[in-house]
Amino acid sequence: MLVEKNKVVSITYTLREAGENTEVIQEVDASQPLVFLYGAGQLLPKFEEHLSGKALGDTYEFVLAHMDAYGPIDAEAVADVPIDVFMVDGKLAEDMLAIGGQVRLRDQEGRLLQGIVLSRSLEAVKIDFNHPMAGKDLHFSGTVVALRDASEEELAHGHVHGEGGHQH
Questions:
Q1: I want to staple 129 with a disulfide (CB 3.0 to 4.6 A). Which of 73, 77, 79, 151 is the partner?
Q2: What are the tens digits of pLDDT across the range 67-97?
Q3: CB-based contacts of 146, cutoff 8 Å, min separation 6
């Protein structure tokens, strides 16, 4: 059996920024592998392409250029948010505004945005809403640790059920 559309794939991986001697950004081991329905659009398309045709036990190693991962850094994704957005019960939520800290806000359409606080003044907070991996080429290495056919229910729902997936 090979990694292809409509297969449930379980992988381990180590993620580093591409380049020599870079630190590990994220590591997923066999005790809690990444489990996904191949071809359902849950992962970056180029990431899935690199796994296509692999078999159980196969290892992989590849680099995703930032344009195929989380894109370039977008200067327009850095915004000044009015300080009054961070008022809770008439008080400034100081704990949310540490430089380098993460904040979650909703935009005018109700979408959840996550950003990093860059600076603040009396009037505004400068927040970078770029994905943390934007502008970075990513190096992945790992192993295919499980592989099976997706159930009819998983195919109908577009995601994995049971262990490693959506729990009922």
A1: 77
A2: 999 999 999 999 999 999 888 888 888 888 8
A3: 8, 9, 10, 33, 35, 56
The model's pTM: 0.79
User: Is 13 within 8 Å of 27 (Cβ atoms)?
Assistant: yes
* Euclidean distance between CA atoms 94 and 88, whole angstroms: 10
Residues 115, 111: Cα–Cα separation, whole Å:
13
Q: In this predicted model, what pLDDT tens digit does every residue of 24-63 receive, in sequence order?
A: 999 999 999 999 999 998 899 999 999 999 999 999 999 9
Which segments of 40-162 does DSSP mark as H helices, in order?
45-51, 152-157
State both tokens at 83: 């300080």
* pLDDT tens per residue across span 145-156: 999 999 999 989
Q: Of 28, 23, 18, nearest to 136 (Cα)?
A: 18
Both tokens of 131, joined, read 């994905």
